[in-house]
Write a structure and sequence with these properties.
Elements: E1 2-5, E2 9-13, E3 18-23, H1 34-49, E4 55-59, E5 64-66, H2 71-75, H3 79-83, H4 87-95, E6 101-105, E7 108-110, H5 112-117, E8 122-126, E9 130-132, H6 150-154, H7 156-165, E10 169-170, H8 171-177, E11 182-184, H9 189-201, H10 205-216, H11 223-236, H12 241-252
Parallel strand pairs: 3-4, 4-6, 5-7, 6-8, 7-9, 8-11
Antiparallel strand pairs: 1-2, 2-3, 9-10
Length: 261
């Protein structure tokens, strides 16, 4: 296991093909200030190009995931500053990560923290976790997916409730709405997320990346165009070594050895 330690983000990986990112700014409640957000994007950019990484897990502390953006950054911005905010590009880089990204949530997951959660493909939460978009409490609205992505995930009225009232929902509600996939005992979200990551990392890498891309396309493409894109991706996989290995291993009743090619 190798670990890179920074004041804001811990980055570690071993020989299991899983990258682990830990938000590490407890004094600011893991507030997603621009420097921390950029470090997350940098780590995911590097992982995208690293064939040794097949899946990533992102988590916070045992008390909170991330309590929002940095209020001090928001306080000094005017309209021009908000429109020219480099965070827009940083968020785009995080959303563009082509490999599976799993969130492990304990405690508070608010504002930009909830928007980071929605950049992930799967999320597991401790039963005491809380999720919310409280930006209207500050006289603003969410700016990184809290009005654009959230209703696509949880539905229009649930998103309206979270945005207009600014009140958090609990883990059981987040599960019911589809914001997360599983609720576990407090303190065990990371272990469960890592187990999911290891399971995904043990599967065919190219197929996994294409599966992620094509599921996400449902939010972008009309149905007919999506069906065409799906079929094109499906057909392209027939030329991969992993497809040949998958068929051979199935016929020979053995575990597949995936190469990612």
């Amino acid at each position: 296991m190798t670990t890179e330690v920074s004041p804001l983000l811990l980055v570690s990986r071993g020989d299991d093909h899983v990258l682990r990112l830990t938000l590490n700014n407890p004094d600011k409640r893991n507030a997603l200030a621009t420097p921390l957000l950029a470090l997350i994007a940098d780590a995911l950019d590097a992982a995208r190009e690293d064939e040794g990484v097949r899946c990533a897990v992102i988590t916070g502390s045992d008390k909170l995931f991330a309590a929002g953006a940095d209020i001090n950054e928001i306080a000094v911005k005017d309209v021009a500053g908000a429109l020219a905010d480099p965070r827009v590009g940083i968020w785009g880089r995080i959303r563009a990560f082509s490999k599976p990204l799993i969130a492990a949530v304990e405690g508070w997951c608010l504002g930009a923290g909830n928007e980071l959660l929605m950049c992930c493909d799967l999320a597991v939460a401790g039963e005491g976790a809380k999720f919310g978009q409280p930006e209207t409490n500050l006289g603003i609205i969410p700016g990184a997916g809290g009005t654009a992505t959230l209703p696509r995930v949880v539905g229009r009225m649930a998103a309206m409730q979270m945005v207009l009232l600014g009140q958090p929902i609990d883990a059981a509600t987040a599960l019911r709405l589809g914001l997360i996939i599983e609720v576990v005992a407090d303190g065990t979200a990371l272990a469960r997320a890592e187990a999911l990551a290891l399971a995904i990392a043990g599967r065919a890498p190219v197929a996994i990346r294409q599966g992620k891309a094509l599921v996400n396309a449902a939010f972008e493409l009309p149905h007919s165009a999506h069906l065409a894109a799906e079929r094109q991706a499906f057909s392209a996989l027939f030329g991969t070594a992993d497809k040949a290995e998958g068929i051979a291993s199935f016929k020979e009743r053995r575990s597949a050895v995936w190469t990612g090619h």
